[in-house]
Amino acid sequence: MPKRAVVLNDTRPERHHGCARVMRNLEAGLAAHGVRVVATGPVGRDWEAVPGLGPAMEGADLVVVNGEGTIHHDRPAGRRLVAAGAYAARAGVPAVLLNASWHANGPALAEAARVFARVYVRESLSRDALAAHGVAAEVVPDLTFASGPFPGAPAAREGIAVTDSVDPRLAEVLYGLTRTGAGIVYLPVVAPFRIRERTGRELGRAARHAFFRAAGPWLEPFGWVRPRYIAARHALPTPEAYLAALARCRLVVAGRFHALCFALQTGTPFLAVPSNTPKVEGLLDDAGLGRARVVDPDALDPATLAARAEEGFSDAEREGAARYVADAPARIARMFAEVAALDRGSGYTVAPERDPRNDVP
Q1: Smallest Cα–Cα separation from 146: which of 129, 175, 122?
Q2: Nearest-angstrom CA–CA distance, 303 and 305
Q3: Rounded Cα gap, residues 327 and 140, in angstroms
Q4: Are 3-146+329-359 and 149-326 in the same CATH fold?
């Protein structure tokens, strides 16, 4: 009989190709090792407020927390995810934190993270941040890499692309490069917003997206369209379509972490924009590429991008990226095997009189 798992921080509602690929690979990786996902808690929502999720966690064999880019700077959303580990442990259910970044969190949150039976982070800088507080974590590549190298990269590449950014100001800077007349194209990592049977606030969001998708070309020159609506207008329908478009580029300016992951998987030369944590630098360190490709987007111009596209990858960069991508699926599979081997009662035990949630600032 398969084990049952509850997954928290399901990031699919973000409408983001990286998040979609992460969640698909997360569920597939668990299933390959005999673990069935029976419930999920969506990103941006307190798991304690989701009807039925608490009892589902208590009755599960595993609680899996998908950290992604949530746990940094002692943010409330990150604290809630760490607190979920204590809730599971009180019920005798092993909890695992995986696919996580960890940055600028205080000692109290690190202490609370000891409740997890296993901790897996996406890059070594996050591991080092936890180690500074005496918390052990293993580095396993982001779950997008479970898919391995992209199989459809063409022999010849052409054109320069820029992606969107989670930072609206940087998104505007990057999109501005496409309006310089230099032929730079926009490849935002977000997915289209689809109008289904929605009501209330979601229907309103869908209507706004539909309006700006139609009217955006006329309104954008006046600065009347927010970056997220511009990105939605240029969005490609699936992760596979996005990877195929990226694989055709000579150079991409990656404004998001998962855009960098996809660039590595497609072997696309890139320039990387720093994020709200050092996860970009950590990934490049782990892949053996160093930080020469980390850039300030405000300093970019078409001439600079054309020159960097002409340079492409060095042989050492190409080999390092290919090696990292090729090794990642096996490392991720080992992680899932370790997670699936956990049994109820095998994790950290929390005494009833002490709830680590109270220790989190």
Answers
A1: 122
A2: 5
A3: 10
A4: yes
Architecture of domain 3-146+329-359: 3-Layer(aba) Sandwich (3.40)
* Amino acid identity for residue 317 in this structure: E
DSSP string over 84-146: HHHHHHHTT--EEEEEE--BS--HHHHHHGGGSSEEEESSHHHHHHHHTTT---EE---GGGG
Rg (CA), the chain: 21
Structure tokens at 9: 């921080």
**Contact criterion met (CB below 8 Å) for 193 and 182:** no
> Using an 8 Å Cβ cutoff, are 66 and 22 in contact?
yes
CA distance 82 to 9: 11
- Whether the CB-CB separation of 172 and 165 falls below 8 Å is answered with no
Please state the domain extents for the chain.
3-146+329-359, 149-326
pLDDT tens-digit series, residues 274-306: 999 999 999 999 999 999 999 999 999 999 999
Q: Which fold has domain 149-326?
A: Rossmann fold (3.40.50)
Q: Of 257, 247, 252, 255, nearest to 287 (Cα)? A: 257
Q: Of the candidates 281, 356, 317, 271, which has an alpha carbon nearest to the alpha carbon of residue 85?
A: 356
**In which residue ranges of the chain is pLDDT below 70?**
194-229, 346-361
Q: What is the DSSP letter of 190?
A: B
